[in-house]
From TrEMBL, chain A:
Entry protein name: Unannotated protein
Gene3D superfamilies listed in its UniProt record: MetI-like
Keyword terms, alphabetized: Membrane, Sulfate transport, Transmembrane, Transmembrane helix, Transport
MF term (GO), any: ABC-type sulfate transporter activity
GO cellular component, one term: plasma membrane
Matching NCBIfam families: 3a0106s02
Species classification: unclassified sequences, metagenomes, ecological metagenomes
Organism field: freshwater metagenome
CDD domains attached to this UniProt entry: TM_PBP2
TrEMBL record, chain B:
Presence of the UniProt keyword Cell membrane in the record: yes
Pfam families: ABC_tran (PF00005), TOBE_3 (PF12857)
Entry GO terms, CC: ATP-binding cassette (ABC) transporter complex
GO terms for MF: ABC-type sulfate transporter activity; ATP binding; ATP hydrolysis activity
Protein name in the entry: Unannotated protein
Length: 265, 317
């Protein structure tokens, strides 16, 4: 029995080591080998800092929008009855199934010169493609599911007894939401926001298609890694990757720490 | 304050939950809605509270037509079977909820909550969270929370259904005393006829979305309106065409006029009373209730042949 347990544990550990920890530690190792100075220079380069700013700007717009949308759509899916509910539920998951490159291409077609929306925006001199708007749209699209995926099961689990009780005690729908529903789902929302943020920071494929990767303009941090890599500046690529990896690890730690222990909520 | 429900209909898909239901609840009374599951009793209570919208019919509370009102404008106190405690709030904040929604001054809220917690015997537990309370304590908190806003009527949906028998009996008695002190018009939903008889002044018996009878506990037991009420309220035997209560059967060792033969299957001692389970001719079961002394005198044995004679029987045409 004990032996089997140990074997299982060893297998799980080896798998994680090979798939996750191995490649991550390679980044550290390569930076050490190719020179910390090179990596540092690439990191403080104007274009790199700008790339991080672009990534952050996108996240600051996309995360709140997707949080609000995620909560609203979860409430609709769990609490309301309406025709086409199953379809909405399925559509929320679509970005998980769809390759980001396809999302990028779809946006490209929609907002391009001959696209449905594209011609209108071009006629009004509003730049969508190869600019921040398209990048934000692409990022929003790929990070839509995470808040709803966390909130929906929690809403189902708590049921609507508490909300009904609040209503009979004189609370309006709005008061019920702020005082009862939101506090009850707060950890699910936090978890969803953290995952959404991580997804926004890491997005590559869809943004690559619609941004045009113009250095110092429409280049995000992940696009910058690719750029440095293509230019054979490996140290630079690893340096930026390291920062992105560090953010991801920080996100993971925040998530683990912030999630309440079993049975306290 | 009075409640009147008039000609209310409610369907859920094909299921008819309420079928032309009209009920009057007098000011200051304690009324029980009694019925088996699916009889519509909970739906009726939820219609009164505004938690369900009737397909047709009207609801009046304190002589005001509230049919179109949302729950928050009806000023009712509602107590849920599974407590519906606000899990992220302390006991104090749970009870204070209705008052803080009404933006009452802090000191007033604190005084009122203290007073209510004393009333439901939860003083000293104000800082606890619902998860740290027992089921009975949670339900008393639910009651205090409902009473905090001085509701026009108090509505309880199987409030003791999730509790164990001893706590249930305790709370039942306590609810009765509370009602005698406050005289808040109260409607309690229950499937337990004993609970309804013990607690209520008036019992509304429901079955398959309809009201079968409205009467006081004594009348309901003594003069049931139909077979359903007769069989649902208290135990009963079918003796040919008549219905006979187990305590309205006389048991003798010798045959007599009007007595029929039966065989003892089981003798169950329930403290003060003894229940004798018999079978008659064609294998029809029959239960007789005796006092312990009467049973001892007869020295009843399993397999023994005895004679039963109804002292009081009811027939419905």
């Amino acid at each position: 029995m004990l032996r089997r347990k140990l074997t299982l544990r060893a297998v799980a550990f080896m798998y994680l080591l090979m798939i996750l920890v191995g490649p991550l530690s390679m980044i550290f190792w390569r930076i050490g080998k190719d020179g910390v100075t090179n990596a540092w220079e690439a990191l403080i380069a104007h274009d790199t800092i700008h790339a991080f700013q672009v990534t952050l700007t996108i996240a600051i717009i996309a995360v709140p929008l997707n949080t609000i949308f995620g909560i609203v759509v979860s409430l609709a899916i769990v609490r309301k009855k309406f025709p086409g509910k199953g379809l909405v539920n399925a559509f929320v998951d679509l970005p998980l199934a769809l390759s980001p490159v396809v999302v990028g291409l779809a946006l490209f077609l929609l907002y391009g010169r001959t696209g449905w929306f594209g011609s209108w925006f071009i006629a009004h001199h509003i730049q969508i493609l190869f600019a921040l708007p398209a990048m934000v749209l692409a990022t929003i699209f790929v990070s839509v599911p995470f808040v709803a995926r966390e909130v929906v099961p929690t809403l189902r689990e708590i049921g609507d007894d508490q909300e009904q009780a609040a209503r009979t005690l004189g609370a309006t729908g709005w008061q019920t939401f702020w005082r009862i529903t939101l506090p009850s789902i707060r950890w699910a929302v936090v978890y969803g926001v953290v995952l959404t943020t991580a997804r926004c920071l890491g997005e590559f494929g869809a943004v690559a298609v619609v941004s045009g990767s113009i250095q110092g303009k429409t280049e995000t941090a992940t696009l910058r890694v690719d750029e440095e890599y293509q230019n054979l500046n490996y140290a630079g690529a690893y340096g930026i990757s390291l920062v992105l990896a560090a953010i991801a690890i920080l996100v993971l730690i925040t998530m683990t720490v912030s999630r309440p222990k079993e049975g306290t909520s | 304050m009075s409640i009147s429900v008039r000609n209310v209909n409610k369907r859920f898909g094909d299921f008819v939950a309420l079928n032309d239901v009209s009920v009057e609840v007098a000011t200051g009374s304690l009324t029980a809605l009694l019925g088996p599951s699916g009889s519509g009793k909970s739906t009726l209570l939820r219609v009164i509270a505004g938690l369900e919208t009737p397909d047709s019919g009207t609801v009046e509370i304190a002589e005001e037509d509230v049919t179109g009102f949302s729950p928050q404008n009806r000023h009712v106190g509602f107590v849920f079977q599974h407590y519906a405690a606000f899990k992220h709030m302390t006991v104090h904040d749970n009870v204070a909820f209705g008052l803080s929604i009404r933006k009452r001054p802090k000191e007033e809220i604190r005084d009122r909550v203290d007073q209510l917690l004393k009333l439901v015997q939860l003083d000293g537990l104000a800082k606890r969270y619902p998860s740290q309370l027992s089921g009975g304590q949670r339900q008393r908190m639910g009651l205090a929370r409902a009473l905090a806003v001085d509701p026009k009527v108090l509505l309880l949906d199987e409030p003791f259904g999730a509790l164990d028998a001893r706590v249930r009996a305790e709370l039942r008695e306590w609810l009765r005393r509370l009602h005698d002190e406050t005289h808040t018009t109260t409607v309690i939903v229950t499937h337990d006829q004993e609970e309804a008889m013990e607690v209520a002044d008036e019992v509304v018996v429901m079955n398959r979305g309809r009201v079968e009878q409205v009467a006081g506990p004594v009348d309901l037991y003594e003069h049931p309106a139909n077979e359903f009420v007769m069989t649902f309220v208290g135990s009963v035997n079918r003796l040919d065409d008549a219905w006979v209560r187990p305590h309205d059967l006389e048991l003798t060792l010798d045959p007599g006029p009007g007595a029929s033969e039966a065989m003892i299957e089981r003798v169950v001692h329930l403290g003060f009373e003894v229940r004798v389970e018999l079978v008659r001719g064609e294998g029809e079961p029959l239960a007789v209730q005796l006092t312990r002394d009467a049973a001892e005198q007869l020295e009843l044995q399993r397999g023994q042949i005895v004679y039963v004679r109804p002292t009081r029987a009811t027939t419905f045409s």
